[in-house]
Amino acid sequence: MNELICRYPGDRDQALVTFVYDDQPQGPGDRAAFEAHLATCEVCQDEVEALRGVRAQLGRWNPPEPNFAITFGEAARQLRVSQPSAISPQAPRASRWWREIPAWAQVAAALLFLGVSAGLANLDVRYDQQGLSIRTGWSQPRVAQGAAPAAVAQRSSSADTPWKADLLAVEQQLRAEMRVARATPATAQVQAVSAHGGDADIVRRMRALVDDSEKRQQRELALRLAELLRDVNVQRQADLAKVNRALGAVENNLGVEVLKTRQQVNLMYRASQVVR
Amino acid sequence: MTWTDEELVARSIGGDSESFNELVLRWERPIYALAYRTIGREEDARDVCQETFLRAFRALPGFRGQAKFSSWLYRIALNLCRDWIRRERRAPIVQPPEDVDVMELAAASEPSESIEDLVARKDLSRAVERAMALLPDEQRTAIVLKEYHGLTFQEIAELLGCPLSTVKTRLYQGLTVLRRELAKGEQRRTKATL
C-alpha cells in the first residue's frame, strides 16, 4: 500500500536530488535503498515527478547568441597590448579574425580576388546563340562553326592581340542585344525569358525565393501580433490589479478617516455633555 | 587529429598560440553560457567570458594540471562572476530582450513549429530565466553547473569549495524554489490567456 506521509529513514532531500540527477557518489547502494522506498511512497513519487518536470523546463532556457568574434578579437588585442610576451613572443591570433572585417570590405576583397583570378586565368565568358560558354587559358580558342563572319575576320586580322578581337566581339554582341532589348516590349522580353529553358528555371527559383520571403514575413507578422496580444493581455491584467489595489487603499484610507472623524465628534459630544 | 585539453594546454605553454586559440574555440560557449546564466546580463557575460580567457592565458604557465582544464576555467569564470555580483551589490538581474529578435526566432524554429508553439517556447525560456534570477547566488550556481554543464556533485563541491552534502542541499532547495516559481508563472500565463 502506498504511504501518504514519507517515512524515508535517511536524508530525504539529498536522496531525492541524487536520484533525480542519477549521480551516485556513494555508489549504487543508496540508489537501491531509495528506489525501494520510492516504490511505496506516493509523496516521493510526486516530488520526483515534479523535479523532473522542473529539469525539463530548465532545458528550455538558452542564453542569447554571443558575438565571440568581437569577444576574443578584443581579448587578443588586449593581450598584445598588456602582455606581449606572456607565453610566447606572439600573442594568439584572434579567432575568426576575418569576421571583424566589415562585410563590404570582405565583398570588395572577394571581388578583387575574383577579378585577379579571372585575369590570370584569362577567363572568357560568353553568352550567345550557342548558349553560355566559359573558357580559361591563354591558348587561341577554336572558332566555333557558324560564328559571326565579321568577328572571325576581326580575329584573324588581329591574331597578335587575341584579347582585342574577343573584346570587340563581346562589345558587338552586347550592342546587338541592347538594340534588340530596346526594340522588344518588356512583357515580350519576360515571355521570351520565360520561354527559354535555362531562364525559366531562374525565374522559377526567383519566384520561389519571393514566395519564401513572403511566407517568412507573414510568419514574422503573426509572431509579432501574437506577442503583442499576449503583452497587452498581461499589461491589462497588471493594470487592473493595480487599479484594484489603489481603490482598496483609497477605501481603506477613507474608512480610517471616517472612523477618526466619528471618534472626534463623539469625543466632542461627550465633552460638551460633561461641560453642561 | 583532435587534441585533448591537456595536450593543448601543454602545447600552449610550449609557445604554440594556435593551441590556445583552439582551447578558446572549444570553451568560449560553455564559459559564456555559465557567465550569462550566473549573472544574467548579456554584455557583462561577454566581458566575463573574455576576462576569463585573458586570465587563463596569463596564468597558463602556472597551470600544473592538478584539476581538469575545464574545471580550472570554470573556477576562474565563477570567481569573476562572484566579483561582478559583489561589485554590483545586487542580485543578478535578468534582462529579457526589449524586442524579440524575430529573425533569430524564425531561424531557431523548427519548420513544423507553429507561431503559438514558438511564442510559448520563448515564454517558457523567459519564465525559467526570471525564476532562476530569484534564486540565491549559491543555489543558482549549483543548478547551472549541474544542469547546464553536467558536472558531478563531486566536481561542483570541489569547484565551489563546499561539502558534497551542501551541493545537494543547494540543488534541492533551488529546484524546489524553481518548481514553485514556475508553477506561479504558469498560472499567470494561463490567466492572461483566458
Write up this protein.
The complex is a heterodimer of chains A (276) and B (194). By secondary structure, chain A is mainly alpha-helical. Chain A is 69% helix and 4% strand. Chain A has nine helices and two strands; from the N terminus they run αααααββαααα. Chain A has helices at residues 12-21, 28-38, 42-58, 68-82, 103-120, 149-157, 162-183, 186-195, 197-275, and strands spanning 124-128, 131-135. In chain A, α1 packs across α2 and α6 runs antiparallel to α7 (162-183). The longest helix of chain A has 79 residues, at 197-275. Chain A is elongated, with a radius of gyration of 41 Å. The two termini of chain A are 81 Å apart. Mean pLDDT of chain A is 71; it is low at 83-100 and 141-159. Chain B is built from nine helices and no strands. In chain B, α2 packs across α7 and α6 packs across α9. With 194 residues, chain B is mostly helical. Classes of the chains: A mainly alpha (276), B mainly alpha (194). At the A-B interface, α1, α3, α4 and α9 of A face α2, α3, α5, α6 and α7 of B.
Features:
heterodimer; A: 276 residues; 9 helices; elongated; B: 194 residues; mainly alpha; 76% helix
Structural class of chain A: mainly alpha
Low-confidence stretches of chain A: 83-100, 141-159
- Compute the gyration radius of chain B: what is it? 19 Å
Which structural class fits the helix and strand makeup of chain B? mainly alpha
User: Low-confidence stretches of chain B at least 5 residues in length (pLDDT < 50)?
Assistant: 96-100
Mean pLDDT of chain B: 84
Helix content of chain B: over 70%
SSE run of chain B = HHHHHHHHH
Oligomeric state as shown: heterodimer
Mean pLDDT of chain A: 71
Instruction: Identify the overall geometry of chain A.
Output: elongated
DSSP strand (E) fraction of chain B?
under 5%
E-strand count of chain A: 2
The strand count of chain B comes to 0
The major pleated sheet of chain A works out as:
2 strands, antiparallel
Q: Name the shape of chain B in a single word.
A: globular
Strand content of chain A is under 5%
Separation of the first and last Cα atoms of chain B: 57 Å
What's the gyration radius of chain A in Å?
41 Å
